[in-house]
Amino acid sequence: WTLPFAAHEFGHLVASEKIRMPQFGTLDIPPYHMQEYISDAFAVYAMGPSYAYASILMRFDPFQSYLDQREYPSDAKRVYVILKILEKMQEKASNSDQTAKIEMYESVIGGLREEWRSALDQAKIPEDSVDKNEIKQAKKILKCLRDNPIKFSFEKYSNEIRDLKEKLEFLLQDACKADAKRDEDALTEEDRDLLSRLIESLWIELDSTIIGYPSHYWQKSKDLGEKLLSNDKVVPSIGMELRDVLNGAWYIRVEKPSMTERIEKNAEDLMKEIIRMQKKGEEIGKSALTIGGF
Predict the structure, then answer these.
(1) Is 97 exposed, middle or buried (0-12, 13-18, 19+ CB in 10 A)?
(2) Which of 57, 156, 214, 244 has the fewest beta carbons closer than 10 A?
(3) Residue 182 has what DSSP assignment?
(4) Cα–Cα distance between 24 and 6 in angstroms, integer?
(5) Distance (Å, rounded) from C-alpha 51 to C-alpha 57?
(6) Are the CB atoms for 187 and 80 separated by under 8 Å?
(7) What's residue 85's pLDDT?
(8) Comparing C-alpha atoms, which of 118, 86, 119, 120 is closest to residue 105?
(9) pLDDT (0 to 100) of residue 200
(10) Per-residue pLDDT, 17
(11) What integer pLDDT is reported at residue 205 of this predicted model?
């Protein structure tokens, strides 16, 4: 179920080799965060909905999603970017085929967004439950710790400092959860504006340089997902790729959660068969072992 995360790691390589970074220089986003956004966008663009499912349902934590880390943007921001890229994929498919809208990602996007917003809502706390003066002081101390990571990592009391940093981050998480200015996606107006501009630039780069997940594959993956419920062995068809199996498996797991064990077994067997046939040189499709043809 976590195999789609491999596309994110591959995205780091793609970002350095194929994505033109200078055009993002006008956006006030830390370099480490930019790398994560680009890798998330690449992963969902190349893999399809399976990356969105795996990230939002298995990796991201709504109770720890409000605060940026030094190396990573907040989970709330990453969810926003991933779903917006899926929306762009939906829009592209609809523009080229008016019937595609019926078969595409609206239910995926809507379902994941509803699931995530519900989880965020449960994570919220009352606005009057935090001390604003305490929060202000915590921000100052935490900024000092983050701005001087090397200095503090080698000092005598580095363990105590690390513990303090964690406590301060939890405190600020609570402050963000209690912030009434944040919307249902746990974003501020400034966050949403910045991310919207980033997504527009990201989409231009992705759509012009990366081989994406073809829109007509989604219906094929959904049909494959239904077959993964069977007690019978599923045989690879011509052109079948590993990402088809992952997308089909995630689709049907969400639809039929009680059948997860059978779906997992059948999907694993099918992927092993695809790999076996590919190694023997049998024709399945030249990109069966790759992500988006890479």
Answers:
(1) middle
(2) 156
(3) S
(4) 24
(5) 10
(6) yes
(7) 95
(8) 86
(9) 92
(10) 66
(11) 84
In total, the chain counts a number of residues equal to 294
Distance CA 93, CA 276 (A): 33
| Amino acid identity at 78 | R
What does the alpha-carbon distance between residue 50 and residue 258 come to, in Å, rounded to a whole number?
18
CA 257, 258, 261, 266 torsion: positive or negative? Answer: negative
Spell out the alpha helix ranges (H) of 210-280. Answer: 217-227, 242-255, 260-279
pTM here is 0.79
- pLDDT for residue 282: 55
**Pick from 214, 208, 222: nearest CA to 96:** 214
Structure confidence at residue 23 (pLDDT): 59
Contact 203, 170 (CB under 8 A): no
Q: Of 57, 59, 113, nearest to 84 (Cα)?
A: 113
Predicted local distance difference test score (pLDDT) of residue 250? 96
> CA nearest 79: which of 48, 40, 106?
40
**H runs (alpha helix) in 124-255:** 132-147, 149-153, 158-177, 189-209, 217-227, 242-255
Give residue 94's pLDDT: 76
Residues of the chain below pLDDT 70: 15-25, 96-103, 124-182, 282-294
